[in-house]
TrEMBL record:
Domain of life the protein comes from: Bacteria
Alphabetized Gene3D superfamilies for the sequence: 3.40.50.2020
Family note: Belongs to the ComF/GntX family.
InterPro entries xref list: ComF/GntX_DNA_util-trans (IPR051910), PRTase-like (IPR029057), PRTase_dom (IPR000836)
Native organism taxonomy: Bacteria, Pseudomonadati, Pseudomonadota, Alphaproteobacteria, Acetobacterales
Protein name listed in UniProt: Amidophosphoribosyltransferase
């Protein structure tokens, strides 16, 4: 087993309960500008966050397995609290879609269906570039729809790679509980930023 040590942190939002497996970074120190004038940082990450960085930013698929094993082991103790995993849809195209890869791996490890039941009504863009909370909420207003046939009466685990402000996950939780008629929604992310900007 390639289980890595984590430091689970409660995350709050519109969901019933939620957890991030660890912080996204421990520290990030400016080390000077590169040849293109961009500030470079020396970033220290928890082990699971380093694996996530490799999967997302280096398209290193080998980093997915220890994340999947660690999360499946953690969730195994809470198996009665959900009966389906719903991954947050990717905000932009990548060769490797880490959230989907991890969700499917976790679902397979726990023998739980992974529902691709959330779709977007328009291109999402990236919320990380919007810092104003009201503007973020406006950006996701009416953005997500759900196939209620898949979620009605279910206990959902909403899954994403990173928790920042919770705007996206709150919007999806509301859709799952309202139009989707889910019985309950819980949330899990791999990492959580140190601030919610």
């Amino acid at each position: 087993m390639a289980i890595v040590k984590t430091n689970p942190i409660a995350i709050s939002g519109h969901w019933h309960s939620g957890v991030a497996m660890d912080l996204h970074t421990i520290s990030s120190t400016p080390v000077g500008y590169n040849d293109f004038g961009y500030m470079q940082f020396e970033t220290v990450r928890p082990e699971i966050a380093e694996l996530l960085f490799r999967l997302k930013n280096r398209a290193d698929r080998s980093a997915a397995a220890p994340i999947i094993e660690t999360v499946a082991d953690f969730l195994g103790h809470h198996r009665d609290k959900f009966d389906a995993i719903v991954p947050v849809p990717p905000s932009h195209p990548r060769a490797v879609q880490p959230v989907i890869i991890m969700a499917e791996g976790i679902g397979q490890a726990l023998n739980i269906p992974v529902l691709s039941c959330i779709t977007t009504t328009r291109p999402t863009g990236q919320l990380k570039n919007i810092t104003d909370p009201d503007e973020r909420k406006e950006h996701v207003n009416g953005l997500y729809t759900v196939d209620a046939a898949q979620t009605r009466g279910r206990k959902i685990l909403l899954f994403d790679d990173l928790f920042r402000s919770g705007t996206t996950m709150n919007a999806i939780t509301d859709v799952l509980l309202d139009a989707g008629q889910a019985q309950v929604v819980r949330a899990l992310t791999i990492t959580k930023t140190r601030s919610n900007q």
